[in-house]
Design a protein that fits this description.
The complex is a heterodimer of chains A (316) and B (440). Chain A is an alpha+beta fold and 316 residues long. Helices cover 34% and strands 12% of the residues of chain A. Among the domains of chain A are: 31-89; 168-299, 3-layer Sandwich (Rieske Iron-sulfur Protein), CATH 2.102.10. Chain B has 2 domains: 32-336, Up-down Bundle (Cytochrome Bc1 Complex, Chain C); 361-440, no CATH class. The chains are: A alpha+beta (316), B mainly alpha (440). The interface between A and B is medium-sized, with 21 and 28 residues.
Chain lengths: 316, 440
C-alpha cells in the first residue's frame, strides 16, 4: 500500500520535474500530447462505463443496460490500448533472422543416442513386438469399460412399440376416430400406452382418395378408406417429417407428399412412402392400419421397415 | 524408421537439439525422488477414472424413489446424485471398480504429496532457487485436499452431507463476510438450492482440475529449467547433476512406476472396499451418524474442530468469530501460511541467500529437521484427535479425557519432538551411524 502511494506520488511529481536530458546524437521523440490526452479520456470513459455496469447491476439489471455498459467499457479500454500502442509509445521496428529449422548433425546424434540405448540388448524386434502387443491389449482393456455406457445397439434400435390391434392415440391420449380425418389433414398419432418420445412411436396419418393409392402389391389393405400411416421420423437424419404438401398443384407437383423440414427429403404418400426428392436413402416405413368396431384407428401390424435414420443393421 | 521420424520432425519444427537434450536429461537416482512422481501418476489415474465416472454420475438434487438393484434401499427417497452413484456401483459393469479406484487414488494422491513435501523440507530442497516450486506445490496440496473434499461431497450420501454441513458452517464462520459468501456458494441457506450440486460438480470436474493441471505443468517446467537437486557424493557438485539419463533406462523405470501406481490403485479399487455409500444411506439435514470418519486428509480439520474450546468472539452484539472458524479456517490457514513462508523463515534464520543444488541429509541440519518434525507432529497430533471418537469406542477411553489429552499433547508433543529430534540428529551427525543400520 505504502509503495503504491509513493508510486502515485512519483507519477504526480513527474509532471512537474524537468524532462531528463537524453544522450546526445539521438533524435528526441516529442510526446504526442493529443494522443496522450485522448488515451486518458478513453480510460476515464472506460472507468465510467464499468462503474455504470455495477450501478445498473444493483439498480436496474436490464439486459440492454448491462450489456451496453460492460461492452462499452471493453470497447473503450480497447480503444485506449490502441491509441496508446499506435501514438503514445514509440514505434520500434525490429528485424530478426529466422533460425534454421534443420539440424543434420543433431539428427545423426539423436539417432546415435537412441541406438546407444539398445546396446547389448538381444532380440530387440521381439521386445518391440511383445511391448507393442502388451500396449495394444492394455489399451483395449482400458477402453472396454466404456461399453458400460449403454446397451447393445441392435437390441435397442430394432424395438418397436407397434403391433396388431394397438390403438392409435393423439398427443393427449385420445383414440382417433377414422371418420374424423379429412382429406388434406395431417394427424400425428402414437401407440396407446407407449413412450411418445421413442422415435419408433410417432406416426403421421393422412387421408387420400382411395383411387389415388398406388401401394406395392403386398400392402393391399394397409390403407382402409384411404387412411394411410407412416413413421413420422425421417429416414435420413431423424427429424420429424412434419410438412404435408396437399393439395398439390397438379402441373408441377407429382402428388401428395410429406416433407422433412431439415434437409427437405420428400416422401410420396400414395406410393408407400417412396422417396421422391432429397437426400433420404430409404422410403418412410409404412404402418398398416385398420379400423376397429368403434370406428377408431388401430395398427394392423408393425412398420414395413425400421423407422428412423439408417445404421449397419437397418435393413435386417 | 527412427531416422526418418527424427528428420521429419526436425525439418518442420527444428526439434533435433531439443530431442537430444530430452533423451539425455539426467535424473538423480534416489528413492525419495519417486514420491512426487507417484503423486503425478495418481493424478493421471484420477483424471482417467474421473472422466469415466462423469459419464454416469448425475449431479442433480431432484428427488426420486429408488427402484434399483440394491434391495435394502428400494423404495427410499433420495436424490438423483445418490441414485446415480448407486446405479454406477451396482448396475454398471466395471463401475464400482473405477469408482473405488478413483477414491483410493485420491487418498494416495494426497498422501504422496505430503510425503513429497516432507522430503523437500527435510533435505533443504526448499531453499533458493526452489522456493518458487514450494509455493506451487503447497498450492497443489491445498487444492488436492479441497478437490478430494468436493469429490466425496458429490454423491449426496450421509457422510458427504455431514461434511458439507461442516464446510458450510466453517465458511459461514468467516468474520463479517462469511454469511454472504456461504449463501452465495450454496444459493441459499444450507442445504442450499438445487443449483448447488451442479456448482459443486463443475468445480470438482473442471475448475479445480484445470487449475491443478496447469500448476503441475508449471511445477514440472520449473524442474526442467532448474534441474533436479541431488544428494552430495563423488563427482557431484553445486553446478552439475549426476544420475541416469532419460533414455533408455529411466524412461522404462518411470513408465514402470506409472503402471505400478495404476496397478496398485486398481488392485485396491477392486479388492478393498472404500466409501460404501449404500451403507451410509442418503443424506437428510435431520440425519447424522455417530463415528463417521471422512477421508484421511480431512482428519486434521475434524481434529481441530473437536479440540477447540467453545470460544466465540462477540462485538457490540455481533458475533465476530463463530467457533468453527478456529478449527476449520484459522488452523489450516496457519498451517499453510507456515508452509508458504518456510523458505523465507529459513532464510531469515540462517541468513543464507545462496543458491543450493546439493541436498542435506536430515541429520546434517539438526535445527531444521527438529523444526519440521515439531511442525508436522503438531499437525499429526491434531490429525489423530480427529479419530478420538473411534479411539474412545474401541479402547474404552473417556472421550472427555481424550479431548484434554490431545489438547495438552498438541502443545507438549511438538516441544518434545523438537528437542528429541535435534538431539538424535546431532548425535547421528557426529557418529555417522545409519539410523536403521548398525554398521557405519
Amino acid at each position: 500500500m505504502k509503495r503504491w502511494l509513493i508510486a502515485a506520488l512519483v507519477l504526480l511529481l513527474g509532471k512537474l520535474r524537468p524532462p531528463r536530458a537524453l544522450p546526445p546524437g539521438r533524435p528526441v521523440r516529442e510526446p504526442d500530447r493529443r494522443a496522450e490526452n485522448l488515451t486518458f479520456l478513453l480510460l476515464l470513459c472506460a472507468m465510467a462505463a464499468a462503474a455504470a455496469f455495477i450501478a445498473f447491476y444493483f439498480a436496474n439489471p436490464d439486459t440492454q443496460f448491462l450489456g451496453a455498459t460492460l461492452g462499452l467499457a471493453f470497447v473503450l479500454l480497447a480503444a485506449a490500448c490502441l491509441v496508446a500502442g499506435k501514438r503514445v509509445v514509440p514505434q520500434i521496428e525490429g528485424v530478426k533472422e529466422r533460425p534454421e529449422l534443420e539440424h543434420p548433425f543433431e539428427q545423426d546424434e539423436v539417432v546415435a543416442v537412441i541406438a546407444e540405448g539398445g546396446e547389448g540388448v538381444s532380440r530387440k524386434r521381439f521386445f518391440l513386438l511383445a511391448g507393442g502387443g502388451a500396449a495394444g491389449l492394455m489399451g483395449a482393456a482400458l477402453l472396454t469399460p466404456a461399453l458400460s455406457c449403454g446397451p447393445e445397439a441392435n437390441r435397442v434400435l430394432s424395438r418397436s412399440p407397434w403391433n396388431r390391434g394397438r390403438l392409435l392415440v393423439t398427443e393427449l391420449d385420445e383414440p382417433i376416430v377414422a371418420a374424423g380425418i379429412v382429406v388434406g389433414e395431417l394427424v400425428t398419432a402414437f401407440p396407446s400406452g407407449a413412450d411418445k418420445e421413442d422415435i419408433a412411436s410417432p406416426v403421421i396419418v393422412v387421408r387420400v382418395r382411395p383411387d389415388e393409392l398406388d401401394l406395392p402389391d403386398d400392402r393391399r389393405g394397409w390403407a382402409p378408406e384411404g387412411l394411410i400411416g407412416y413413421s413420422k421420423i425421417c429416414t435420413h437424419a431423424g427429424c420429424a417429417v412434419s410438412e404435408y404438401r396437399y393439395p398439390s398443384y397438379g402441373p408441377t407437383a407429382p402428388g401428395p407428399a410429406v416433407v422433412c423440414p431439415c434437409h427437405y427429403s420428400t416422401f410420396s404418400v400414395t406410393e408407400g412412402g417412396k422417396r421422391i426428392f432429397g437426400p433420404a436413402g430409404r422410403a418412410l416405413p409404412q404402418l398398416p392400419l385398420a379400423i376397429n368396431g368403434d370406428g377408431q384407428l388401430v395398427a394392423d401390424g408393425d412398420f414395413s421397415g425400421r423407422p428412423g435414420p439408417g445404421w449397419w443393421g437397418v435393413r435386417k | 524408421m527412427i531416422r526418418r521420424a527424427v528428420r521429419f520432425l526436425d525439418e518442420r519444427l527444428g526439434t533435433a537439439p531439443l530431442l537430444k537434450k530430452t533423451l539425455q536429461y539426467v535424473f538423480p537416482d534416489h528413492w525419495t525422488f519417486m514420491l512426487g512422481e507417484i503423486a503425478l501418476y495418481a493424478f493421471v489415474v484420477l483424471v482417467a477414472t474421473g472422466i469415466y465416472l462423469a459419464l454416469f454420475f448425475e449431479p442433480s438434487l431432484a428427488h426420486v424413489t429408488y427402484q434399483g438393484d440394491y434391495a435394502p434401499l428400494r423404495g427410499h427417497e433420495m436424490t438423483k446424485a445418490f441414485q446415480s452413484t448407486l446405479d454406477l456401483s451396482f448396475e454398471t459393469k466395471g463401475g464400482l471398480l473405477l469408482r473405488q479406484t478413483h477414491h483410493w487414488a485420491a487418498n494416495v494422491f494426497v498422501a504422496a504429496i505430503v510425503l513429497h513435501l516432507l522430503r523437500i523440507l527435510y533435505t533443504g530442497a526448499s531453499r533458493k532457487p526452489r522456493d518458487l516450486n514450494v509455493w506451487i506445490g503447497t498450492t497443489l496440496l491445498a487444492l488436492a485436499v479441497f478437490e478430494g473434499y468436493a469429490g466425496y461431497s458429490l454423491p449426496d450420501d450421509l457422510l458427504s452431507g455431514m461434511g458439507l454441513a461442516i464446510g458450510y458452517s466453517v465458511l459461514l464462520s468467516l468474520p463479517v463476510v462469511g454469511a454472504w459468501l456461504a449463501v452465495l456458494v450454496w444459493g441459499g441457506q444450507f442445504p442450499g438450492k438445487e443449483v448447488f450440486e451442479p456448482r459443486l460438480f463443475i468445480t470438482h470436474v473442471f475448475v479445480i482440475p484445470i487449475v491443478m493441471a496447469t500448476l503441475i505443468a508449471i511445477h514440472l517446467a520449473i524442474i526442467v529449467r532448474q534441474k533436479h537437486t541431488q544428494f552430495p557424493g563423488p563427482g557431484r557438485t553445486e553446478r552439475n547433476v549426476v544420475g541416469s539419463t532419460l533414455w533408455p533406462s529411466y524412461a522404462l523405470r518411470s513408465t514402470s512406476l506409472l503402471l505400478a501406481v495404476a496397478g496398485v490403485l486398481l488392485l485396491l479399487g477392486g479388492l478393498v472396499q472404500i466409501n460404501p455409500i449404500w451403507l451410509y444411506g442418503p443424506y437428510h439435514t435431520y440425519s447424522a451418524t455417530n463415528g463417521a470418519q471422512p477421508d484421511w486428509y480431512i482428519g486434521w480439520l475434524i481434529g481441530a474442530l473437536r479440540l477447540m474450546p467453545p470460544l466465540e468472539i462477540h462485538v457490540f452484539g455481533y458475533t465476530l468469530v463463530p467457533n468453527p472458524f478456529f478449527g476449520g479456517a484459522l488452523f489450516p490457514l496457519l498451517v499453510f501460511g507456515l508452509l508458504y513462508s518456510w523458505p523465507a523463515i529459513e532464510r531469515r534464520i540462517t541468513g543464507d541467500h545462496a543458491r543450493h543444488e546439493l541436498l542435506d541429509r536430515p541429520r546434517d541440519v539438526p535445527w531444521r529437521t527438529a523444526t519440521i518434525s515439531a511442525f508436522f507432529s503438531w499437525v499429526a497430533v491434531v490429525f489423530l484427535a480427529g479419530s478420538q471418537d473411534q479411539v474412545a469406542l474401541h479402547f474404552h477411553f473417556s472421550y472427555v479425557g481424550l479431548v484434554w489429552f490431545f489438547r495438552v499433547a498438541s502443545v507438549v508433543v511438538p516441544l518434545v519432538v523438537f528437542f528429541v529430534t535435534r538431539r538424535v540428529a546431532a548425535e547421528l551427525k557426529e557418529t555417522e551411524l545409519h539410523p536403521l543400520r548398525l554398521d557405519r
